[in-house]
Specification:
107 residues, alpha+beta, 3-stranded antiparallel beta sheet, 15% helix, elongated
Amino acid sequence: MAKSQDTYVCQSCGAVYAKWAGRCDACGQWNTIELEVNDAPPGGLSAKTAKKGNSLTLDALEGNMAEVARYPSGNQEFDRAVGGGLVPGGALLVGGDPGVGKSTLLL
């Protein structure tokens, strides 16, 4: 179950506070700050982050996938390391500690 996040909101101007106060600093009104309980969105996202973006529909990874044609780079060891060659339209991230030969490999 998601944790609820308590916020205190001024009923006059809408200013948000982490704890209750007798007077709103934004508009100066007294006793207008009231508790509002908000359910936290799933996944540990903040409420502001969860409202942004577009929803995605994910496909199930079931069934047979068609084999993707790979283009050989001309270097047998490199092709073996990346699964048989480069995939058209794909990206390849080459990472490692400093000095292991990333630039030499890509040259």
